[in-house]
Amino acid sequence: MNQLQHELRNVLVIDDDEDIGFALKRIIGGCGYDVAVAVSWTEALAQLSTHVVDVVFCDLRFPGNISGEEILDLLQLNFPEIKVVLMSCAMPDAISSSLLKRGASFCLQKPFFKAECQEVMLLLTEQQYLKQDLKAA
């Protein structure tokens, strides 16, 4: 297997609830990743334009003009290399399936814990290896 050209190390959490952002920073950071938190799309865009981000964990519901689905679309358009994990307190199978078809890497229902974060990050890393192996073949 080829060595990763760029490891998935840098995570951005986008959630308007600062307490949830803080908790996710501790959970994901506890898995060994560098984690930044943004409470709005404006804040997230500032992070994305100044820092390397490999994975975004994004809430689906935001007050105001933008939704997690719209953030997913914007990330795919402007930062297609970033893996997107969408999360919500309500994540029925139909919504999850729709979001995955739309381009999300994973969908998680809150609350989730360290084990789920580790599993998601491991699977994203394996996908990265597979893509690189296919390109090298």
Structural notes for this entry:
48% of the residues lie in helices and 18% in strands. Residues 1-5 have low confidence and may be disordered. It has a five-stranded parallel sheet with strand order 2-1-3-4-5, with helices on both faces. Helix 3 links the parallel strand 3 (55-59) and strand 4 (83-88). With 137 residues, the chain is an alpha/beta fold. It has one domain (10-130): 3-Layer(aba) Sandwich (Rossmann fold).
Topology, pairings included?
Blueprint: E1 10-14, H1 18-29, E2 34-38, H2 41-50, E3 55-59, H3 68-78, E4 83-88, H4 93-102, E5 106-109, H5 114-136
Parallel strand pairs: 1-2, 1-3, 3-4, 4-5
Order of helices and strands: EHEHEHEHEH
In helices, the fraction of residues equals 40-55%
What can be said about the biggest beta sheet? 5 strands, parallel
**Cα distance, first to last residue?**
11 Å
Measured by DSSP, the beta-strand proportion falls in 15-25%
Class derived from helix and strand content: alpha/beta
With strands numbered from the N-terminus, the spatial order across the biggest sheet is 2-1-3-4-5
CATH class: Alpha Beta
Q: Within the CATH hierarchy, at the fold level, what is the topology?
A: Rossmann fold
Number of helices: 5
Write the CATH architecture name: 3-Layer(aba) Sandwich
Strands, count:
5
Q: Summarize model confidence as the mean pLDDT.
A: 87
pLDDT under 50 segments (min length 5)?
A: 1-5
Shape: globular
* Total domain modules: 1
Radius of gyration: 14 Å
CATH superfamily: Response regulator
